[in-house]
């Protein structure tokens, strides 16, 4: 009887001690919050789509999310013909800055992170601590020192003044170091060295394929950061032909109050500037998933 009482008491106490789930963690509430966050992210893009189809006069006669007469082809023609097609030059510059810079920058960050994680050399921990300190420094605080260095090297108002500083990213080095420690076993590196492979070959033939998901992640972060980069080109460049899309569209937006005809150009250009980021994410996402599942069947 005492045993039964103990069992029953334990059951009652267990039920009493069990914490009731919070209503804020229910599936419906979580889905509702995710839906609100998705709307918050998508609505600006929807506004760009609807506004890019409007003429100048229809901005004041239609609501924000209302489609008007289909003026998108006319807006595109005006966009590409403005200032002798300077928008195409801005697009080319952004592709070079972000595309080439993302790949080279990610490769440099991955190599640095791998070296800090897997190679023994004096000052390794100190170097990594300094790298973490660089993560805490805002990029705007580095603009003036970078400008002074570029001025000494006579690189101001050139392509290299914007391209070269974007090749390093302390956060990318940190991600690569963390991923190298988790994804690259020391035994694989030792086996490659026993077979006569040098450090550089070991990195490219053994470590880098294992780090592919992390490498793709760094590329994506680098691409988005460089594509949206604004302050560094603003400090370094004065030639409109060297502007990226972000700075060029900003220059046009400052003229809207005096020249309203720039309003459709800025909106249509902003819509086109979003698509490369979407394409980059969709393309790299496939590589990301294939890299994550590559070793699941071994």
Automatic annotation (TrEMBL):
Entry keywords, A to Z: Cell membrane, Membrane, Sugar transport, Transmembrane, Transmembrane helix, Transport
Comp. bias intervals (Low complexity): 1-10
Gene3D superfamilies, A to Z: MetI-like
Region (Disordered): 1-23
Protein's membrane topology: Multi-pass membrane protein
Gene Ontology CC terms, in alphabetical order: plasma membrane
UniProt superkingdom: Bacteria
Primary localization class, coarse: membrane
All residue ranges annotated as the ABC transmembrane type-1 domain in the record: 91-283
Chain ranges passing through the membrane: 28-49, 95-115, 127-147, 159-180, 215-237, 265-284
GO biological process, one term: transmembrane transport
Any matching Pfam family: BPD_transp_1
Location in or out of the cell: Cell membrane
PANTHER family assigned: ABC TRANSPORTER PERMEASE PROTEIN MG189-RELATED, ABC TRANSPORTER PERMEASE PROTEIN MG189-RELATED-RELATED
Recorded family membership: Belongs to the binding-protein-dependent transport system permease family.
Name this polypeptide is given: Multiple sugar transport system permease protein
Species this chain originates from: Actinopolyspora alba
